[in-house]
Amino acid sequence: MLKLDIVGVDCNQNHVFPKFANLKQLELQLREDYLYNLSCFMKASPNLQRLVLKLDEAIMMPHVPREIRNYTPKSPHHHLKVVEIVGYRGRKGDVQRVMYLVKNALALEKIVIDPVPRWCVWPSEKDRGAEEVEKEKKAREHAVQHLKGKVPSTIEFVCL
User: Fold this and answer.
1) How far apart are CA 72 and CA 67, in angstroms?
2) What InterPro entries would the database entry show (predicted)?
3) Most-buried pick from 34, 42, 77, 102 (CB within 10 A)?
């Protein structure tokens, strides 16, 4: 298992990732607009079975060209079975990320969508505030409306 916080890490398309041949579970906290970083980690982890993406919406890097932020090479993955997306907000990048995983994770069995940023320590809904709880509610509705129908019936779709 490997847990990495790569929020604020600049994207370098020429960087060669080491192979994580024995890695079975990967947790990445990343900016919500960086699909390229995700594809690099997927390619470097050929035996990955579980992927948890913690999407950080607070930090955006507008100086990075959009074509680099959204660059997603096709990389078929043959062992990834479970994907959990935490901090889902229903933005274009969120939908794009899920569809990238559906298309490239050939053994995918389950996708879990969780709009609550669980890496933040909030004991209860009350502590998150009404505005945050409302964002989570809208994100759940968005996931059901815009993702559930796009995910093949062979993949279990769970929205928390």
Assistant:
1) 9
2) At1g61320/At1g61330-like, LRR_At1g61320_AtMIF1
3) 34
